[in-house]
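Record 1 of the preview.
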Amino acid sequence: MPTTNQVTQYNYQFHGGANGYANNRSVLRLKDGNKAVAYIYFLPEGQAIPNDTESSSGFIRMYMPESALIGVIDMLRNESPISIYYASGSGFLRTGNEPIGEGDF
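->
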């Protein structure tokens, strides 16, 4: 069974220039308390997306096209709880169960 970490904090940075920094347009750092548990790298459109990885310590590196950034930030700002885990060669960022018809407050 994959190890699941709760995402309780995050920060991100944007990279300028034609190709960003190290071919990344931006990076999102996810934490469980004070412990960094994952980075999500957002790559320029059209760039090949590398495979996600998990280190032996359980640290996850996910890769997504830069067009996914707004949706991920929206999830982090508006949903709770959020967790991240690695399984079957991919990183998974997910919300907890949401009640039907909850709507916006």
